[in-house]
Sequence to fold (454 residues):
Amino acid sequence: MTAQKVRFNVGGRIIETTATTLATARRDSMFGAMFDDEWKLQPRGDELVKPEEKEYFIDRDPDCFSVLLNLLRTGKLHVPSNIPEKLLYMEANYYGLLDHVRTAKWGDFDSNRLRLASTVSGQAPGNCTAIRASPDGGCAVAHGGIVRVYDWMLEEHPPLNLEYQSVNDIGWMDSDKIVMSVRQNSTRHPGMGVFSSLTGELRHRFQLGDGKDQVKGFAAGALCFNSDSNKVLASCRETSNEGILEWHQVTGKLTETSNQGIGVWDQVTGKQTDFFDFCLGGDAGKIQWLNGSNCLFVGGYIDDKYYINVLDFRDKSVVWSWPNGTKACVTASRIWDASPMDESKFCVVGGDDGTLGVLDLRSTKGGVRWNPYRDVECRYRPKLTCHAGQVFCSIDDEISVYYHGLDQWVLTSTLGRSQGGPIQDFSIGGDRLFALHIDENVFDVWETPSAPII
Fold:
């Protein structure tokens, strides 16, 4: 491609660039449509006009155009103080350059270089429950019976609700669709639906059958996704019948409970494809699909003790559980959260006395290998997750990041802010970390600065 000069008249201002610069905008942009298959400028029917007099007129803001053109030239985004960011985003959307702007604003996720980029105030004080990052850098926040949705520019979209029932969990199928599970008290409607993240429209209600084409009313709890088979999974509790007495599969105690288990639905058709009839006994606080194993990690509280189970969907069996009668049972009441590590061979657990430990998911004989990492008194129940080989742990109003190597925990960074109170929940996605605080009901946005261009 030659460096063919191109002239624009943008809102009355003449701006010149080259075809080489415009080609960096890619095919899916307005500038990409100006080229043919060989990346030559399309003929415009004005071949008799002298080349230096040809120009493309665009009735848009010339200042924003100059900023975006410089972004295409250099890969760096510099926004002068006289240009509102929201105006620049609107113009970038017009030209099809939003992805370029987002890439330039923050880089690939790096926990050791995260910075606090912004803080967003919540709308409903005192009852925030969960936050989930979207694949493109936005998020969804559960406030009681409402889920508030924000795009990557942190612009709020119409809120979501299922008869304003209290929200248990939320999850992103993709950047356009959100799944919500609620504590459904009514037997008329299932407690789970998928919504448009843009309009807030309810697109589908997930039905739960019993194998006889009968639809059950159910409350849905923790959610997760199996990306390999495009399935959504949820812990379920039937609301159609009164609780019945049965022996609990984990504790071995006689327990009054409704029918429980894990439901599986196809993300494309919305139809139920499987059900694992498993008596949870309590609410599953976390479920996570273990890639490559056809197994599901299930963790939650029963009688103030934390239990972990690994369910194999191939033969509907419990292939691993903890505590299991070993010395680990003594410490079960100390556990406040657990998360499978990336390779799905180990599970990291957090204790209420400021310790992290590891459980081997391949063995049922060993206990927790505890390693002290902090000596603190937690005022609020912490959260734990694993991402890219590191462990993220919330302690009151900050998040600590650890690397586990050579049988010890190494603190690599700490994320904190001065206001907002304890962290209720946090989530990683779209190369951002979102931390939801409970006192002031605000969430922080942490991102990695874009790498310098040499």
